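Review form for a predicted model. The reviewer records the input and the model, then writes brief findings.
Reviewer: anonymous (R2)
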Amino acid sequence: MNLSVLFIILIMFGRISLLGYERIEFNRAAKNRDPLVSTFLLFSIAGIMLLPLLFLTDFDALSGIGYASLSGTLYSLAFTLYVYVLSNYEVSLVTPLYNFNVFFLFILSVLFLGESFYWFKLVGMALLFIGTALLERKHSLKESVKAVFTNRGCLLMIVVSLLIALGRIIDGLFVKTTTDPFLYSIIQYWIISLYLLIAIVGTKKLRLIREVIAGNYKHFLLGSFANAYSYVLLLVLLSFFNFELSIAEPLSMLSLLVTLGLSVWILKEDIKGRLIGAILMIIGGILLVNSFRPLDFIP
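Model under review:
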């Protein structure tokens, strides 16, 4: 096996594992806590944890600060809107629609990043999406999609998924001009934290920060670390290995299987009835891997 391909596999495995673990820790940290303040703590602590990467940073890459600021703004809007939707609309109805970002990402990456189009990739992505919806839903996926035309929360969640996809496309454009994902990720997290802090001050929730983190700081630390470095691993894939975003992001959805396993082990949750979704996700992942062309990603 080519050494570059081995590194790609290890980095992707690390990203999937960290994303899966992040959900468990953030669930334990933020449960029954204010969602806006919890999200701010997740990103601000993560931003601090990324500071050691400054020692690996090429400061000549400051030209990427514009990209980081733009994508950070999009992510901030997306996460704020995401929190609003989950707080004001039926969670089981709107949540499956968040994953529409993979389809937006597929179209946009082909149009703006010049990434490849393979039918295996499209079918694999569809199976991952359906499998994810089966894992998360209480309503049927059909109900959620139909509700897009009648439910404001569902429509807003589609907007969230589009904003996330646009942010990822900007990430992809950035790594074509520089090979320093570290400074970019640091700027990104501090910008998002700043926007969230402004939202907290504007909603007069600043006093809640101490209350939310009290007794949960270990879970916030672990969840923030997993969140921050899973993102760094994505940027490393895109930057150093020229890996396709339209493969990396859908494969990241396999992290839900990690979350599923950890939720049984750590949270003692019952996962009966979710096996079909897990199987579809695995098949979708295999199809995506079959669209992977190793020679395309050798630096």
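Findings: Confidence is low (pLDDT under 50) at residues 294-299.
Further findings: Residues 3-297 form one domain.
Recommendation: see findings above.
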